[in-house]
Fold this protein.
Amino acid sequence: MTKSKILNSKLEIAKDWLPRYTGMKVDDFGDYLLLTNFPDYVEKFADKFNCDVKGQGLPMQAATNSHGLSIINFGIGSPNAATIMDLLTARKPKGVLFLGKCGGLKKSTEIGHFILPIAAIRGEGTSNDYLPPEVPALPSFKLHKFVSDIIVKYKHDYRTGVIYTTNRRVWEWDNEFKKYLRKIGAIGIDMETATLFIVGYSNQIARGALLLVSDKPMIPEGIKTSKSDKYVTRKFVDLHLQIGIEAMTEIEQKGEKIKHFRY
């Protein structure tokens, strides 16, 4: 019987687990990465660049194009978001952009709009295992500047504001929770952004998020359905992915330093 290697540090664990979760060797990940919750984003990326998808049948799927840009589907929810940001310490990427979907909480935020969060409210609880609740969940703003420029290039609508991140998946029926969301004034709601920002900050990984408004859950007719989700995917996902690809590729080509230093 082969004796198992003893893993004594976070880095050793991450180096062992990143390939185990994704099916991709640590050195095969690029310096810049896209993160998503959806396998079809990885498949579209692989089709576009004619590269292989790793990790089929594993918890996460990943691909890297010939230019060294990688994409990972890490699944849904804040625990998975924390897991991938911890595992990426094995690679120490220079920049990570999350391409996620969110519910729009404002009347001015329509389905198909993009949101570049200026911050996220830590309603998920997972991030409390990394830093105290009073530490704000922030992106690396220089990274968002590149993303903003690409959105403007495509003449597409986008908003900025604060995202509320929650672990609750089925809350659309809960009027008391909706009252709370109205009170705090968040522009959108999701399940990952605050966690990605906090764990990225804790691990000194530059990070950002470009969120696609996929539903308007504050009104009954705006709650996501299978039909509406297919519409959003068909009409907006290709552009969502393209903006992420162009933004992260441009950052790498220009060699910009986007690290968010500790405060």
In short: The first helix runs from residue 10 to 22. The helical segments are 10-22, 39-49, 78-87, 141-153, 175-184, 193-202, 226-254.
